[in-house]
Design goal:
This protein is α/β, with parallel strands linked by helices. Helices cover 28% and strands 21% of the residues. It contains 13 helices and 21 strands. α3 packs across α4 (85-93), α7 packs parallel to α8 and α9 (223-242) packs across α12.
Length: 493
Amino acid sequence: MQALEKTDEIHYTGVRVLSPYCHPLVKDLLAQRDLLFQLSKLHQGPVHLLLPDIMDENIDRMRDIFAEYDFDTAIHYTMKPNKSDVFARQAYKNGINIDVSSLAELQAALAAGFKGYEIGCTNSKNRQYLWLAMEHDCLISVDSVLELEWIADMAPKRRLKDSPVRILLRIADLQPLDRQLMKKSTKFGIAVADLPECYEMLHDNDGDIEFLGFHFHFSNPSADLQAGYLEHALRLTEDALTNGFEPQIIDIGGGYRDRVLEESSAWEGFVENVEKSLVQQNDTGIWANKAYGMYLNERGRISGRDKIQSMGSAHSTISYLQDMFENTSLRERPLKDYIAENLLTIMVEPGQSLLHQCGISLFDVKGVKTTPGGDNLIMLDASVYNIGMQFKEPVGDFILLQHSDNVNAADEPSNAYVVDNICNENGIVCKRRMTFPAMPQEGDLLVMVDTAGYVSDFEDAQPHRHPLGKKFVVTKDDNKWAFCSEENYWPNA
């Protein structure tokens, strides 16, 4: 394997190299060249390798964050970023809770060993999803007034009548005190204006339904903004107390991200290069000369930088949560003090952050072609629809593993776009032109790291009947690597 080191200021043939961050165990696995080529031959299509042992570290890190505070916490691993039951089993082994977003995920969580009281049920729900959640005493985040009406109707009909249905109310339109935000359209949650109707229904069904608090989920890169949402949730909690309820929980959702590049400043440099190219009307190095939403406005200035800048966000989950809980700009003291004094429990729903670095994906290179404009296209035997690229654009470069027959001492770095195997112009695996230590050839592998969260199987489709990706678990014990199918992996067995 050829590696590129210290890439913050490295350029080859005019393209900035963006080397992905790799966990030490991932680096070790990438060095097992023969093993990776063997694994790639186990399936005709993308091969996704899962590293559940890294999830243990991520869970410990999340626990360490909350150990600093004087309030209770509940960590719920969010299942939706990855369909594999491997990570549900790993979460169960570690003694944390789980968050599900569908009837099928609820069934999978129960099959992994979780008891109902350890499961949080989110997303919009049909009656079947609600019924199973209520019969197992799951904590239900109510997404609409209609859902609350269904719960009120179904609760007295349960076999499990010894305890009330436990619910949170998910709020759609929290408004921070320190800024006036335009209300964004969202399909999730209940409007603050509808809370009096909810409260009336809850009072009418006292004994069948237990209202435990509020839930919000807004994925954004700003800890200050998230603190504003948390402070509003505290205000709603205080208001609920005056309405005769005893709220105990604030669920702050998920959406936390971690380091994606080896050099944290590399993405900033990439964005600056794109800006410069736009101003000078040069090639941006992005497919069709697009710029991830950035453009030169009528005043000759760059607009739309926020979106592309946030793609390579370097904030850590630790600093993000600390900045939120320790915010002092919204009240006289840090928010953590009010949470602790009111004996509230903070729930979190990390998915991607608990899956950080827990997977890599192997893609076969079919060959290289050149466009009429002179761009090189690396053709993968994979589809953007079964590797999640429509949902999550790769930030770091792919890593080239050369087949032994293709290694040449005279190889030089080369630029290319990476494209997929669907008969559609949208099949650009990464819109950014990448630089490789050598031009990939038929028989080589391209490796993408950190694919367990939202990449390896979040979309999972089969255009033209191409095969879906296949997942295998890889572990290292006593300095020896081993692998098995995801169905056969049980951490405690």
